[in-house]
Each structure stands twice: as structure tokens, then as C-alpha cells.
Amino acid sequence: PERTMTFGVAFKGGHNAELHNHNDVGTYYIMLDGTEMGGDPGGEVYTRRTFSKDRYVSKVLNSYGHPVPVVGGKLQSVGRKAAAKVVRAAFTDDVDTLEIEYAAAYAVPALKSLRRTLTFDRVADTLTVTDKVVCSEPTAFEVPVITYRTWKRNDDATRFVFDKSAKTYRKLKMDVAASAPVKFSTDTIENPSRPDV
Questions:
Q1: Measured between alpha carbons, how far is 105 from 182 in angstroms, rounded to an integer?
Q2: In degrees, to the nearest 5, what angle opens at C-alpha 186 toward C-alphas 58 and 6?
Q3: CA 71, 145, 153, 134: dihedral to nearest 10 degrees?
Q4: pLDDT in tens, 99-133
Q5: Dihedral of the CA atoms 135, 141, 146, 152 (nearest 10)?
Q6: Which of 152, 111, 151, 108 is closest to 134 using CA atoms?
Q7: Angle at 37 between CA 197 and CA 62, to 5 degrees
Q8: pTM flag (> 0.85)
């Protein structure tokens, strides 16, 4: 049957010393009909700070503004050693899967392993992002969801709906599941180079 929408994703491992680097090991993008629905926020308007020692003060360039964890209250580290190792990669016409180990991106002594599996299913039009974390002691673990779209949380508190725009009825649904109690909070990141919608 002919598809009525175009749902696509991109994801990466990498390291945090790339050219024009953002601290974004393990990041991803979600697109619906050419509109970014969630994931990596992209760039910012360049300023003097962008190319200074204060580059990563920016919440758009440091990992705070990316869909990657905050572990033990710490963002991802800068540098080549803050890298992902590919554990498994499988790409077919129907499903793409990438599993990475990226604990090295965090300077958290208690963090022993952090594995992210991203599974993009073109048949079901789904992206599943799974983080498995192992720490030697209780450690706070946060996973942000980044979007420029309008959104709302359903009554059951674990399903979110993102609207493509006020002019369409295209929506993206996100379900959240965790093996520990979950608390939700929101924050707005200023990015002058992109409209907030």
C-alpha cells in the first residue's frame, strides 16, 4: 500500500571532539513529513562565545539540550575519549538497529555501563530508544526529550503527543517506560537560530 506520510530518523554514536562539535554522543533526530518532531536541536547562531573556552556554556551545544542522559547530575564530557563504541549494528529494508556503549562520555565514577539501543522500524513507523544503565551505587539518571513542537501529556502521565503544527493533524506519540519511579519536569532552552513554534 502507498504510504501517506514520511517518518524518518537519524542517529549517531561518535565522540565529543568532532569538527564543530556538540556534546551529543548517542543523539538522534525524528522527522515527520520533513518537519523535525524531536531529538537533536541542531545548531545555534554563532557568537564570540561559540569559538571560545566558554563554547559549552551553551545549552544547545553542550549535552543538556540533546536527547542524551544526564547521569549523576553530570552532562557529557568534552574530548575524543568521550566516545561511543558500537556494540551492534543491523540495517535492513524494514528495521535499523544500533546499539552503543557510551559510558565513556560521562565523568561519573559510579557509572559502569550505559548502553543505548535505537531501533527504527519502517513498517510500524516507530523509533524505540532504550537506555540500560549500570552504576556501582544509586545514581540519578535523567533522559530529556527535545522538541520544537507543541506537546501535551495524556492523563496516564506516560504518553506524550507532539503536534506537527497547528495547521495539520499529524501527530507523533511517545510512550515512556522505566524500571524505576519516573518524575517529569519541563524546561525551555533559548535558541535564537530556531523558532520555538
A1: 23
A2: 85
A3: -30
A4: 999 999 999 999 999 999 999 999 999 999 999 99
A5: 140
A6: 111
A7: 85
A8: yes
